[in-house]
Amino acid sequence: MNSHQTILQLRTMPKALYRITPQVQQVVTESGINEGMCYLFLRHTSASLVIQENADPDVLVDLEQFLSKLVPEGNHYIHSAEGLDDMPAHIRTALTHTSEHIPIARGRLLLGTWQGIYIWEHRQHRHQRELVVHVIGR
After folding, report:
1. All structural domains of the chain with their residue ranges
2. Cα distances (Å, whole numbers) of residue 127 to 12, 18, 51, 69, 116
């Protein structure tokens, strides 16, 4: 059993989903592992990690609009030390994920045809995000 770990530094733009499948696949390829698992962990409390449709960009727009309606920004939250978008970002992260795991076969992520890996930025500002990519297998 072999193991390979990398921390990717990823720059986001405000409130959007960013496809990171190619960067994650690159880490898997560099690991030399052909069969195993890829574990992903986003080291933040105001952004999410999701697997979502990669073909129609309208899906991503609809997701952002839906979650914005479900968790609106404003001054009605107690925690507002980092701005009016901070507490809603924490709630949005709590409703989604900060980790995923994806099987690997023949050195490739076993994602479905329409699946992509995304970081979902919930803040109104650009951020530098850290994604831990841990690949285990043989």
Report:
1. 2-137
2. 5, 12, 20, 23, 21
